[in-house]
């Protein structure tokens, strides 16, 4: 067994599950639940921005440069010609799914910052005032709601892919994301892991940027 996934990557992955579910639930409930929807939306933005940074300077298997493959590598993988030691983390298809999910989540969170609570206007997105008028904010809200359907589709594809690998290829993708380790041949090259302290610093900086910077910007506009 070889360590493949670091703790920051695994914690991001499993934290996103309840956050995403909570966003879905609070949006469906509406009313005063929208206050929690806003908080969870800000938290999701923190997590996604952290994961983007971790994809640039984190551990080997977490980096985009490690798992975003070109056409030749994808063809080799589909043809079964890519050894497992060449893809210890995300496989070439899974890597692009990760990027698609991150970009989709980032867009959803961004739209939410400018959206309006069209029923009461009590829980508008913190940057709604930047749009200048309620009509445009309501249009952005419509995009925010429609894009959630795209997110659900991507999430469904992700889950179905995990099931396919488990049933069709006898490959468990879930257990390694909990334990961090995966069964790989002995000749697999050692993987490089970044310091968890770096992850903590990045997370705190992003949290400060989102939970401090966004309200400051909103207050500046209101003034």
From TrEMBL:
<dbReference type="InterPro" id="IPR051542">
    <property type="entry name" value="Hydrogenase_cytochrome"/>
</dbReference>
<keyword id="KW-0812">Transmembrane</keyword>
<feature type="domain" description="Cytochrome b561 bacterial/Ni-hydrogenase">
    <location>
        <begin position="4"/>
        <end position="180"/>
    </location>
</feature>
<feature type="transmembrane region" description="Helical">
    <location>
        <begin position="96"/>
        <end position="116"/>
    </location>
</feature>
<feature type="transmembrane region" description="Helical">
    <location>
        <begin position="197"/>
        <end position="218"/>
    </location>
</feature>
<dbReference type="InterPro" id="IPR011577">
    <property type="entry name" value="Cyt_b561_bac/Ni-Hgenase"/>
</dbReference>
<keyword id="KW-1003">Cell membrane</keyword>
<feature type="transmembrane region" description="Helical">
    <location>
        <begin position="12"/>
        <end position="30"/>
    </location>
</feature>
<feature type="transmembrane region" description="Helical">
    <location>
        <begin position="147"/>
        <end position="167"/>
    </location>
</feature>
<feature type="transmembrane region" description="Helical">
    <location>
        <begin position="36"/>
        <end position="54"/>
    </location>
</feature>
<dbReference type="Pfam" id="PF01292">
    <property type="entry name" value="Ni_hydr_CYTB"/>
</dbReference>
<dbReference type="InterPro" id="IPR016174">
    <property type="entry name" value="Di-haem_cyt_TM"/>
</dbReference>
<protein>
    <submittedName>
        <fullName>Nickel-dependent hydrogenase b-type cytochrome subunit</fullName>
    </submittedName>
</protein>
<keyword id="KW-1133">Transmembrane helix</keyword>
<keyword id="KW-0472">Membrane</keyword>
């Amino acid at each position: 067994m070889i360590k493949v996934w670091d703790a920051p990557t695994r914690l991001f992955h499993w934290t996103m599950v309840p956050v995403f579910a909570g966003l879905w639930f609070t949006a469906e409930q509406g009313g005063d639940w929208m206050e929690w929807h806003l908080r969870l939306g800000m938290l999701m933005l923190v997590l996604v921005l952290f994961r983007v940074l971790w994809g640039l300077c984190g551990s080997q298997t977490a980096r985009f440069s490690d798992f975003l493959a070109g056409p030749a590598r994808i063809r080799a993988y589909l043809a079964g010609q890519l050894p497992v030691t060449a893809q210890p983390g995300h496989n070439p298809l899974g890597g692009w799914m990760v990027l698609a999910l991150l970009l989709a989540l980032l867009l959803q969170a961004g739209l939410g910052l400018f959206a309006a609570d069209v029923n009461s206007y009590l829980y508008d997105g913190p940057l709604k005032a930047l749009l200048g008028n309620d009509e445009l904010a309501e249009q952005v809200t419509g995009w925010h709601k429609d894009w959630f359907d795209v997110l659900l589709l991507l999430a469904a594809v992700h889950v179905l892919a995990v099931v396919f690998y488990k049933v069709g290829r006898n490959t468990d993708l879930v257990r390694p994301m909990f334990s961090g380790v995966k069964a790989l041949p002995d000749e697999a090259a050692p993987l490089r892991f970044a310091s968890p302290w770096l992850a903590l610093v990045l997370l705190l900086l992003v949290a400060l940027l989102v939970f401090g910077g966004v309200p400051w910007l909103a207050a500046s506009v209101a003034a």
